[in-house]
Amino acid sequence: MILQEEREQVVEYGRKMIELGLTVGTFGNLSVYNPKENLMAISPSGLDYMLTKPEDVVVLTPDGVKVDGDRKPSSEYDMHRIFYQKRPGINAVIHTHSTWATTLACMHWSIEPLHYVIAYGGDRVPCIPYVTFGTYELAQAAFDAMGNDKYACLLGNHGLLSVGSNIGYTLDIAQQIEFVSQIYYNARVAGGGVIMSEKDMAVVLGQFEHYRQK
Ligand SMILES: [Zn+2]
C-alpha cells in the first residue's frame, strides 16, 4: 500500500483528535504529506475516526488528483493541499471544530498574545471572515492569513486550522491553541487581559523555533 506510514499516522492522529476532545463525530480532517513522493494522505469524508483504517485513507497529489483509495477524500482537501503546494516545510495539516477556538471564530476574534503558548501558532492567531466550507476560496483565505510565519488560523463561523512540519507537532499546535482560546475568552469576558510586549513575544518565538524544525 503506498504511503503506508502516512496513512497509519492519519488513522492514529484522527483518533487522538477525538480522545483529546478536539473534534466530535466525523467533523474535522487531517492529512500528512510525503515531500519525497510528493503525495499526501488525507482522512476520508464522513467516516468515524475510530473506525477508519489505513486503507480508508485517501492518497492525493498536491494538485488534488486521487492516486489511491476507494473512499472520497475530505471535502476540505483544498485547505490541505494548498499548503503542500505553496509552503515548503509544511508536512501536516489539521482542521478541527474544537469548542473554544470555534467560539472565538464565531465572534471573529483574532487571538492576541495574552499567553506565551500562542507562539506555537505564531505571534498571533488571525481569524478570517466566513467563507463557504469546502471551497478553494476558504483554502486561499486561510493560506493568505497565515503567510509564512503563522501555524494556526481561526476560520470565521467555522473552526481552527493548524499546520506544521510533522503530524505530532501539528496536533500539539491545535491542542495549545484550543487552550489559549479558552484563556483568551475568559480574559476578555473578565474585562481585558494584559497583552504581552513585542519584545517578550520575540524571545518566545525564538525559543519555539526549534520545535518547528523537528
Ligand atoms: Zn470544518
N-to-C order of helices and strands = HEEEEHEHEHEEHH
Strand order of the largest sheet: 4-3-2-1-5-8-7-6
Beta-strand level of the residues, as a percent range?
A: 15-25%
Q: Stretches where pLDDT falls below 50 for ≥5 residues?
A: none
Overall outline: globular
Bound molecules: zinc ion
Radius of gyration, whole Å: 16 Å
| Helix count, DSSP H or I runs of 4 or more residues | 6
**DSSP, total strands:** 8
Report helical residue fraction: 25-40%
Structural class: alpha+beta
Largest sheet: 8 strands, mixed
Distance between the termini: 26 Å
On the 0-100 scale, what is the average pLDDT? 95
Could you walk me through the main structural features you see in this protein, from its secondary elements to its overall organization?
The chain has 214 residues and is of the alpha+beta class. 40% of the residues lie in helices and 15% in strands. The model has no long low-confidence stretch (mean pLDDT 95). Strand 1 (29-34) and strand 2 form a beta hairpin. The longest helix has 23 residues, at 167-189. It contains six helices and eight strands; from the N terminus they run αββββαβαβαββαα. Bound molecules: zinc ion (ZN).
